[in-house]
Amino acid sequence: MTDRLKLILLSVLLLAAIIITYSNHWQNAFHFDDSHAVQNNVYIQNIDNIPLFFKDASTFSSKPSNASYRPIVSTTLALDYYLGKGLNPVYFHLSTFILFLLQGVLMFFFFVKMLNAVSANTPNKFISLFAVAFYMLHPSLAETVNYIIARSDSISTLFVVLAFVVYQYSAASRRYYLYLIPVFIGALAKPTTIMFAPMLIVYHILFEQKKDLFAVAKMEWKKLLFIAVPSFIIVLVAYFFIKRMEVSWTPGGYSFFNYFITQPFILVHYISQFFVPTQLSADTDWSPFQSLAEPKAIIGFLFLGAMIFSIFYLSRFQKWRPVAFGLAWFLLALVPTALVPLAEVMNDHRLFYPYVGLSIAVMWAIYLLFENYLKKVPSPVQFAVLLLLLCGYSYGTYQRNEVWRTEETLWKDVSIKSPKNGRGLMNYGLVFMGRGSYDTASYYYTKALEYCPNYSFLHVNIAVLKSSVGDKQGAEEYLKKGIAAGSGEAGNYYFYARFLKDNGRQSEAIDNLYRCIRLVDARMDARYMLIPLLYEQNRLEELKIVAERTLELSPGDATAAAYLKMANTGKSKLQVEEEASVNYKTPEEFLNLSLMYYNAADYPKCISAAQKALALKPDYAEAYNNICSANNAMGKFAEGAKACEAALKIKPGYSLAQGNLKWATDNLKK
Fold first, then answer.
1. What DSSP state is assigned to residue 523?
2. Which of 359, 374, 402 finishes a domain?
3. Which of 37, 478, 575, 585 reaches 20 to 30 Å from 234, CA-CA?
4. Could you tell me the sign of the dihedral formed by the alpha carbons of 529, 530, 532, 537, in that order?
C-alpha cells in the first residue's frame, strides 16, 4: 500500500471516528448563555435581520450586558433558525459541526507546511493527521462543540487557521496581504483573532527566517516589519472597531489584579486537561486569587516562566521549532482571556483556540521522542499506543456529549465537579423545581445561597419556588431582594410582574413590565404579558405603542397584530379572531377559536369551530373534547359523552376528556 493510499484510508477512518464520537450530540439542548443569545433573541428569528447584526451590537443578546459585537455568529444563528424552522437543535449543532470539520482539514495543511519547513524527510503528513486527530477527538473540545453560543470560539479559530493556510500556500496573498481578510472576518465572531499578528511574527522568525527567538541581532528586520506592521494594523483596526460598536457589553466584575494573578495557575489546569481531561466542567467554581503570595499563584507564575523559557530555548533547535511554535500559539491564544477580567476566571470552552497549537507541539514532541530515544519500539506498537490514546479521547468526548444532553445532566455534572458554584447549584435546583420537586429544589437553592448570597437570579428563583407552594409574602420579599441585588436585570422585573399579575395587582404588574422592556426592548415574553394587561385596563393608546413596537421587532407577530387591531377598532379579541377565521387553514387555528367561543359561553359556535377543525384533521382528540365540553355546558350530556368517547378512542388516557366524560355520564345517571 502506498503512503498516499494509507493517508487517504487513515483520513477516512478519522472522519468516521469523529462522526461516531459526536453521534450522540445532535439533540443536545440549549444551555446557559444560549438562553439570551439564541432562545430568547428575537432578532435571530428573522433572516432579514442579518444586515442589522453588523450595525447594532444589541442584536447579539437579549441581555444588554452580554451584547458583544459578534455579527458573524448572529448571522449563522439566524440561518440555523431559518433552515430548522425554529429552535431545532439539530440544525444549530450541524452548522457548528461542519465548521469544526472544515477547521480540521485546514489544520492538516497548516501543520504539514510547518513541519516541512524544518524536516522534509519525516512522515509529516501522517504526523499532522495524528495531531488533527488528537485535537478533533479531545474531550475538552466537546465543551465548545456542544455549547451552541460558544461557536464564537470555533468560528474565530477557524478563520485564524484559514489565514495561516492562505499565507502559507499563496504567494499572491502574501504579496497583497490577502491573508489578513480572514483575520478581520474572524474578529467579527470573536476578537481573540487579533492574536494572529504576534503568532505570525513567531511563525515568520522560526520557519521563514529560520532563526531562533534569541537571535535578535541576526533577524532580517525589514522582512519582519513588512509582515508585522500590516498585521498589527489590521488587528488593531478590528479591535477598536469592535470596541466602538459595543455599547453596553461588560466583561465581568473581578478586579484586574486579582483576575490576572490567577491566570498563570489556570495554565496548569489547561495543560493537565490536555493529557488527563477528567475535570471538565461547564461552569467551574474557581475564584480569583487575593494575593501573589498564595502558593497556587506562585506555582502558576513559575509554570508560566518555565513555558516561556521552553519556547525560547527550543527555538534554538530547528527540529524542535514546531514544539516552540505550538507552545507559543497556546500562550498567545490565551492572552485575551487573561488580560480582560471576564465574569468567570476560567472556562473549559476557551481551550478550543489554544489547543490547536498544543496539539501539534505534543504530537511533534512525541514523534521526536520515538525517533531519538525509542527507535527500537516496533512501528505497529507505536501506532497501537497512539490509537489507544485516541480511543480513550473519543470515549471521553462521547461521555461529555452525554453530560451536555439536558439541563439536568449538565447541571448535575457541574454540581459534582464544581460544588461551590452557586450558579450551578441554582440551575440544578431549577431542574427539580420544574418537575415539582420543591423540597429538593429548596435544598439546592439554600446551598447556593451559601456561595452567592447576593445573586439576584437566585433570589428570584427562590421567590418563584415560594409562590409555587403558596407562600406569597415570602415570594414578594425575595422578588424585592432580587431586584435590589440586580436592578439592571430585566428578568427580575418580569418575574415580579408575573407575580403581581397572578395576584390581581395589574397596575403594578404593568409598571414592572415597562421597567423590564426599558432595559431590554426585545424582551418578547414581557411584551406578551404587557399587551393583554394594557387591553384589560383599557389603556388603548399605550397598547397601540407597545403593539406597534412589538411588530417592528417581530414582523407578522400574530398576538401584537390582533391586539393592535383591537385597540384601533375597539373590537374584542373574539370579534377580531372571528374576522380572521375566514383565512384559517389549520385545525389548530379553529381549535383555538373554539376555545375562545367556549370561554365566551357561546357553545353552539364552539361546537361549530371544533367541527371545522375535525374536517381538516379527523383524528383531532382535542376538538372532540371541546365538543364534549360545550354539549355538557348546554346540558346535552348524551351528545357530550359520545364526543368524549370519540376523543378517548383516538387518545387513550386523555385526562381532560376523561374528566368531561365522567361529568356527562354522572349527569346521565340522574
1. -
2. 402
3. 37
4. positive
Q: Is 148 within the bounds of a domain? A: yes
Is the separation of the CB atoms in 218 and 211 below 8 Å? yes
Q: Cell 473581578, residue?
A: 254
Residue 252 has pLDDT above 70, yes or no: no
C-alpha cell at 669: 345517571
In angstroms, the CA 525 to CA 44 distance is: 16
pLDDT score of 489 more than 80: yes
Cell (9 digits) for 358: 498544543
Q: What total number of domains does the chain contain?
A: 2
Of the candidates 404, 380, 427, the residue with the CA atom closest to the CA atom of residue 143: 404
Residues 409-421: tens digit of each pLDDT: 999 999 999 999 9
User: Is 155 within the bounds of a domain?
Assistant: yes
Question: From CA 262, how far away is CA 476, in angstroms rounded?
Answer: 39
Position 120 in a domain: yes
Q: What pLDDT score was predicted for residue 385?
A: 86
The pLDDT score that the predictor gives to residue 65 is 80
CA pair distance 93, 73, nearest whole angstrom: 13
Q: Is the pLDDT of residue 510 over 90?
A: yes
> Which residue in the block uniquely carries the three cell numbers 472544515?
102
pLDDT in tens, 320-364: 999 999 999 999 999 999 998 888 899 999 999 999 999 999 999
Q: Are 334 and 270 in contact (CB under 8 A)?
A: yes
Mean per-residue pLDDT for 489-514?
A: 96
Identify the CATH number of the domain in which residue 605 sits: 1.25.40.10
Provide the phi-psi class of 88: left if phi over 0, else alpha when psi is between -120 and 50, else beta. beta
Within a domain: residue 567? no
| pLDDT at residue 299, as a whole number | 97
As a whole number of angstroms, the distance between CA 401 and CA 395 comes to: 10
| pTM, two decimal places | 0.87
Please tell me what DSSP assigns to residue 418: -
Which cell goes with 392?
480513550
Handedness of CA 417, 425, 283, 268 (dihedral sign): negative
Average pLDDT over residues 540-550: 95
| Domain termination site, one of 402, 428, 445 | 402
Domain span at 618: 585-670
Per-position b or e across 16-27, b if 16+ CB within 10 A of its CB: ebbeebbeebee
pLDDT tens digits for range 421-460: 999 999 999 999 999 999 999 999 999 999 999 999 999 9
Label residues 64-95 b or e (16+ Cβ within 10 Å = b).
bbbbbbbbbbbbbbbbbbbeeeeeebebbbeb
